[in-house]
Write a structure and sequence with these properties.
Elements: E1 2-4, E2 9-15, E3 18-31, H1 33-38, H2 44-74, H3 83-92, E4 109-121, E5 124-130, E6 135-137
Antiparallel strand pairs: 1-6, 2-5, 3-4
Organism: Caloranaerobacter azorensis
Pfam family, one: DUF6470
Protein name: YviE
Length: about 160
């Protein structure tokens, strides 16, 4: 008996995975204009608008004060204390408001722009194989039957008396 085993065949084909990464560098934009405005550091447009608003308000307050003082001086016929010393004392001292505050109250506006794009392809593995069966050569054994000597019986009488 003879047995031969041929090797099996195996082929492996791989496709490598692919990864593509595209990124845009981030840009951080910090806007502190509101914080600076609260601290009194305004741009020229805001500063001009605020000065005009405050000026208009002060003019209106001044007109109201002058009209009020004129009305007080017109009441001279009433038995009241003299108006001029009273008005002089009232206008001599400016009332000041004191207040403690923390600035800035608002937070800066922070904006981040940028992008990240990741694209991928999966890899593949292809395995091909071939199984080879064993090769068996088998020859049946031979059995030869032969007679070296044919059967025979010889009977001899040694004595003739029977």
């Amino acid at each position: 008996m003879e047995i031969k085993q041929p090797r099996g065949e195996q082929n492996i084909h791989t496709t490598m995975p692919k990864v593509r990464i595209e990124s845009e560098k981030p840009k951080v934009i910090i806007d502190q204009s509101q914080c600076f405005a609260e601290a009194g550091l305004k741009n020229y447009l805001e500063l001009t608008r605020e000065a005009a608003r405050i000026g208009r308000q002060r003019v209106l307050e001044g007109i109201a004060r002058i009209a009020e003082d004129g009305d007080r001086m017109a009441q001279i016929e009433n038995d009241m204390p003299p108006a001029i010393p009273e008005l002089a004392e009232k206008n001599a001292w400016e009332e000041l408001d004191y207040n403690i505050d923390f600035i800035p109250k608002s937070r800066p506006k922070i904006d981040v722009k940028g992008s990240l794009k990741i694209d991928w392809e999966l890899g593949k593995v292809n395995i091909d194989y071939k199984v080879n069966k064993p090769i068996i050569n088998f020859q049946r054994g031979k059995v030869e039957i032969y007679l070296k000597q044919k059967p025979s019986i010889k009977i001899r009488y040694v004595d003739v008396k029977i």
